[in-house]
Specification:
The chain is of the alpha+beta class. It has helices at residues 15-22, 27-35, 63-72, 74-83; strands spanning 2-10, 38-46, 51-58, 87-88, 100-102.
């Protein structure tokens, strides 16, 4: 199992909308995440900096393939069209990244 963390900004004017849509995530999106070995997924918001931190555990053995399956999923792509305009990717992210990955530097097990 891999613990994974990512960060992204959010448009402060769209925070309530983001919270509202995430209170009722589409079942097809959730099922695709499960089929791609994503578990224990949470998103946290930090205001007033307007940063979101996502955490999940990956229990598969080929993250790139599972992540590609998520990206190819039609329902997920529609979900991203809904949520993407609310998000503000970090200027420091690498090419091809949306949510910027974070390095785990400590864990108390």
């Amino acid at each position: 199992m891999q613990k994974m963390g990512f960060v992204i900004g959010i448009d402060p004017e769209r925070i309530e909308e983001y919270k509202r849509v995430h209170a009722d995530v589409w079942p097809e999106v959730l099922e695709r995440l499960r089929r791609s070995n994503i578990t224990n997924y949470s998103i946290f918001l930090r205001e007033p900096e307007n940063l979101m931190f996502s955490y999940f555990e990956y229990v598969g053995d080929d993250f790139e393939a599972d992540n590609a399956a998520i990206a190819a999923d039609p329902a997920t792509r529609e979900w991203w069209k809904l949520c993407g305009p609310m998000q503000r990717p970090l200027e420091t992210r690498k090419e091809g990244e949306w949510w910027a990955p974070m390095e785990q530097v400590f864990h108390l097990g």
